[in-house]
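Q: Structure tokens for this one, please.
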Amino acid sequence: MESLQEFSSSSNGDRWFLGKDEQSRRTFVLHRANDASGGHETRSEVQAFLNAATGPERDALVALLGVADDTGDAEQEFYSPLS
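A: Here is the predicted structure, written as tokens:
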């Protein structure tokens, strides 16, 4: 079983979710493309998404997670909680 929390959507209908696999306890980002694009779903590890993504969906995930962000470091391995 998985739980999903939507954290961003675009004007064209794309949606991004923070997911958690209840069995493995692993978190992931799910991107669900809009229907016109076929509704394809792509999963990414949270770290990989934060290191690769740009734009409002990335900013929304950083805000949701409440983590510090160093956008100048593409190899950042983890994001520490804001204090």
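A few notes: The longest helix spans residues 56-65. The CA atoms of residues 21 and 71 lie 27 Å apart.
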